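A quick aside before the break. I want you to see a complete sequence-to-structure record at least once, exactly as it would be stored in a machine-readable document. Don't worry about memorizing anything.
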Amino acid sequence: MLMGLLVWATVCFKATAQNELPQYDHVIIVMEENHAYHEIIGSANAPYINQLARDGVLFIDSHGIGHPSQPNYLALFSGSTQGVTGDDCLQGKTPFNTPNLGEALLDKKLSFRGYAQNMPKAGFLDCGYQTSSVTIGRLYARKHCPWVNWVGTGVNCIPPGMSLPMTAFPKDYSKLPTVAFVVPDMDNDMHNIGLAGDATAIHRADVWLKEHLAEYAEWAKSHNSLLIVTWDEDDYVSKNKKKCPRYFTVQNCEAAHVSSRSTIIIFCIPSNRCTA
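That is the input. The structure line, written in tokens, reads:
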């Protein structure tokens, strides 16, 4: 799972030889929803996403763990589904006291934040918030914000101030935490399709990503930082075998395609060749 990648990318020492792994100053993970690899990569409805995929490191055989969404998010953030098999809201059943990415970063004196579009305030624990006038679907959904399930004061918990609305995303990128999740609302992450159809939903998410992360993506290339864009799962079509898009923009690495069906480890060596 990406949990291994994220801990690697932030905790290990900076690479000085081929057998060592780099430490990035900032890592941003953007979560998208419910689309298979072939629906996104090469799609005319997602020009910016495809630009990033061409310029970065694209994983061409990356898979979610199953359906529905919530177990994938929990596994991504903690290395475990925490026994959750559905999308039922976990309010009142959490915080979990199990190891997770946020706590692991804090333990190493590093930092974490989760930013969610349309989350109404820091530390918000409710199941959802606001309904879209465009798609008539829910906008903010707790099930897509895995870190919220560890917000609290117990063992392995993270403080409420680390769970934030997207409006708190810093304009000065040097003030970003070591690792941050960015979760668009469900109109802008391809989840809510609406009457306009899937092509419009993909394009809407593509526009949102460009408007909110393009400047960071460029900044990251010259500031020892990393952008990861990934989908939680595919489109529920069995022949796709849960295959979904996943790519990284990596400083000083050549564009590459990588086949990986298990743990993803990617690092740059002095030749600037990307290795997985």
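Two observations worth writing down. The domain at 2-11+37-275 is CATH 3.40.720 (Alkaline Phosphatase, subunit A). The mean pLDDT is 82. We'll return to this after the break.
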